[in-house]
């Protein structure tokens, strides 16, 4: 019994490049999956492209095992408050839409929310919002409101972050007789944005260390940054599970990135145990230790992730 969590598939970009990254994985892996969770950024323009991309995923495993959590790109050419449309697309294709969703697969509880950020990472949210509004495509490509819709502003996504954070805090406070994994698109750790730091970092990560230290979920898997990096906070593994754009991934490297979010449940002497593939960080560390598994990537050629 296993679950695969993948972020930043950007399948529209991969198909434009003539590559299918999922073809790098062994077919028998999909046969054993109880679920595939896409942790954001399946594709831009979801109203047009999500149906096709869900069908591509469904060529590997039944659509009823596919669960889609939107990332920032999944709102491009769409509405930030248009999740009813995304829910309908998933339902029409036989898949499942996730947002502030609790999902139990293989006896493991998954708490799933996009997250966004509060822009407070560097201590000056107002300045960070101004920089993000100028530098992030999110605020040019996503709209809000029916009728006289407008482009979204950082204040809009900060409000959603507060809502998603409150939901996660409440759910993590609820006991569960099993393992718990949090899945978000945005990064919850200030030191796991990646080696290439910039003034846009507050749009990629929020500091949820106090929540992680208090709640101690078994793992927190995220995407958005396209940097395969991880660390340990107490006993919590915090790991990026991004694939990224095709120009960032050498041929032959796809499987290694996609498998970073593979979770297997095993039974030892009647007791449930959970394996997250290739966890290498030191569990004794009180704070996260940066552990890149492949060389960090340079900034994206003028694009936001």
From TrEMBL:
Record domain Calcineurin-like phosphoesterase: where: 1-228
Recorded GO MF terms: hydrolase activity
UniProt-listed InterPro entries: Calcineurin-like_PHP, Metallo-depent_PP-like
Gene3D superfamilies: 3.60.21.10
Any Pfam family the entry gives: Metallophos
PANTHER family (UniProt xref): SER/THR PROTEIN PHOSPHATASE SUPERFAMILY (AFU_ORTHOLOGUE AFUA_1G14840) (PTHR37844), SER_THR PROTEIN PHOSPHATASE SUPERFAMILY (AFU_ORTHOLOGUE AFUA_1G14840) (PTHR37844:SF2)
Protein name stated in the entry: Metallophosphoesterase
The species this protein was found in: Gemmobacter aquaticus
Phylogenetic placement of the source organism: Bacteria, Pseudomonadati, Pseudomonadota, Alphaproteobacteria, Rhodobacterales
């Amino acid at each position: 019994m296993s679950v695969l969590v993948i972020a930043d598939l950007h399948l529209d970009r991969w198909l434009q490049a003539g590559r299918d990254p999922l073809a790098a994985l062994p077919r028998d892996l999909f046969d054993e999956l109880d679920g595939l969770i896409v942790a954001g950024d399946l594709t831009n323009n979801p109203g047009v492209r999500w149906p096709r991309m869900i069908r591509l995923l469904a060529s590997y495993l039944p659509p009823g095992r596919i669960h889609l959590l939107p990332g920032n790109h999944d709102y491009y050419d769409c509405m930030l408050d248009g999740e009813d449309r995304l829910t309908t697309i998933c339902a029409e294709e036989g898949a499942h839409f996730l947002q502030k969703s609790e999902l139990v697969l293989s006896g493991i509880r998954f708490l799933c929310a996009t997250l966004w950020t509060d822009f407070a990472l560097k201590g000056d949210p107002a300045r960070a919002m101004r920089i993000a509004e100028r530098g992030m495509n999110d605020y040019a490509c996503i709209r809000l409101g029916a009728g006289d819709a407008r482009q979204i502003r950082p204040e809009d996504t900060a409000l959603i972050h507060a809502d998603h954070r409150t939901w996660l805090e409440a759910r993590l406070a609820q006991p569960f007789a099993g393992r718990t994994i949090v899945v978000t698109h945005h990064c919850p750790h200030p030191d796991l944005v990646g080696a290439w730091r910039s003034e846009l970092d507050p749009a990629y990560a929020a500091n949820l260390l106090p929540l992680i230290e208090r709640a101690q979920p078994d793992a927190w898997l995220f995407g958005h940054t396209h940097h395969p990096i991880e660390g340990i906070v107490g006993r919590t593994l915090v790991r990026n599970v991004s694939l990224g754009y095709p120009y960032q991934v050498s041929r032959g490297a796809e499987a290694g990135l996609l498998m970073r979010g593979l979770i297997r449940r095993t039974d030892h002497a009647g007791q449930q145990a959970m394996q997250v593939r290739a966890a290498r960080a030191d569990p004794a560390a009180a704070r996260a230790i940066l552990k890149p598994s492949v060389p960090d990537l340079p900034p994206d050629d003028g694009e936001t992730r």
